[in-house]
Amino acid sequence: MDQATARRIENDPNYQKLVSERKSFGWTLTIITLVIYYGFLTLGAFFPDVFVIPVFGSITLGIVLGVAIILASILLTGIYIVRANGEYDDLTNAIVAANLRGGQR
Predict the structure, then answer these.
(1) 3-state secondary structure (DSSP) of residue 56
(2) 38 contacts: CB under 8 Å, gap ≥ 6
(3) What is the spatial distance between Cα 84 and Cα 47, in angstroms, rounded to a whole number?
(4) Is 103 left (phi over 0), alpha (psi -120 to 50) or beta?
(5) How far is CA 85 from the centre of its chain?
(6) CA angle (15, 72, 74) in 5-degree steps
């Protein structure tokens, strides 16, 4: 890609919106994930007795929380995929289309 094309893409409002929103949303999901993981670790470090509380027969709260963390990670990944396949792909297609027209809308 030549410098003129790169500059044209970087100056495209759709590209700037894509970069800004993806970065912001990515950091939001990252922070949520870290809070969940470190919250689990902190709970285990300072209140280990919480993990052995029985919930259903021999199933303890620790197992339930562990499964919840895995499910939360899958859910957050799904949320990102839905947004990426929708909004982000639309912006990417608009950027590509504008580039093919030489930067004209």
Answers:
(1) strand
(2) none
(3) 38
(4) left
(5) 13
(6) 60
Reading the block at residue 71, the tokens are: 């499910």
DSSP letters spanning 42-85: HHHHH-GGGGG-EEETTEEHHHHHHHHHHHHHHHHHHHHHHHII
Phi first, then psi, for residue 4 (nearest 5°) are -65, -40
Where does 13-96 show beta strands of DSSP type E? 54-56, 59-60
> Cα–Cα distance between 41 and 16 in angstroms, integer?
37
pLDDT digits (tens, 9 = 90+) for 27-75: 999 999 999 999 999 999 999 999 999 999 999 999 999 999 999 999 9
**Spatial contact of 104 and 61, defined as CB atoms under 8 Å apart:** no
pLDDT at residue number 55: 94
Find tokens 């027969």 and name the residue: 57
Lookup: tokens for 47? 């209140």
